[in-house]
Amino acid sequence: MTFKSRQAIRLSDGRELIYFNEEAQTHRAEYPDTRHLPPPPPTSQLRYDPLVDEWVAVAAHRQTRTFLPPSDACPLCPSSPAFASEIPAPDYDVVVFENQFPSFSDRVKPDEVTAITDMVPVRAGVGRCEVICFTSDHNGSFGKLPPSRVRTVIDVLADRTAEMSALTGVAQVFPFENRGVEIGVTLHHPHGQIYAYPTVPPRTQQMLRAAGRYNSRTGRDLYTDVLAAERASGARVVAANEHWTAYVPAASRWPYEVQLAPHRKVPDIPALSDEERDAFGPLYLDVLRRFDALFGKPMPYISAWHQAVVGEGRELGYLHLQLFSIRRAADKLKFLAGSESAMGAFVNDVVPEKAAETLRSL
Ligand SMILES: [Zn+2]
Asked: Scanning 65, 227, 265, 277, which has its CA 20 to 30 A from the CA of 321?
């Protein structure tokens, strides 16, 4: 399955919403947003921290965002006669809309920001933040989606990545899903987000430096060689099919972490072939099932698509999905405390080979 039609509308405050319909004859654009929303808040600013050479987004308006509403007031369910949600139509397959509380948007003008001090330059938080709803089923989860819907989601992410990569000033497009209140999720309805960053995030910068150094030294591609070594060893491979391998990184930072990588190097989701897109869902759903089986209850997780940057260094990017959980035991979470939070030095309590062995056995 994929989407057969794509219908864009404007919500009452001007934000864009796009329905991706699996049936060509479905029409959802005729349902207007009946709410009278105030204009979206001014967007964030980015402040430069000279001590660590990083940009930090400051978005005070996000403090007021919707926090765990009751299910009859869920902003991600389709609208009903009793409640007008973010999605005006009475049903949907996959829908994407601009976040009401964005960390980045195109509403601020670059000349509206001024430096904090001579040492701390500021720039506008120009970019875009979207919400993606995978299903209209409030009580569903990504892991319960049929493979055909996962394929539709991949095609939607390809559409959004291509469109957001083309926006002025966008440096990297990052689709992700936070799942579970333990991770800090503020809405129970299954959903993900897509960030279009105006700067290359610190983690990507670090990965680009590593890949660039390796390439200068060997003439080869770093992620390609890491993946080949993992596939040859097999000790940390959890599952695989013809086009993808899921493995626990040898130096994973989290108690349970799996990376899913296509066997062919591609920069981003739009570059995946038809066969690769079809093959992703069955493997990913299998890994999610194993995650939930680990402790016999829904696993809180972060699922993060690492895509190539838009500009300089694009050729060094290798698309892969990083899935990890902070749950280290049935009743224990890993918190980022002193060493991790202050120093960025991770201590993992679960041996990666053991994590892979356990995940394989489920
Ligand atoms: Zn809902």
From this structure: 65
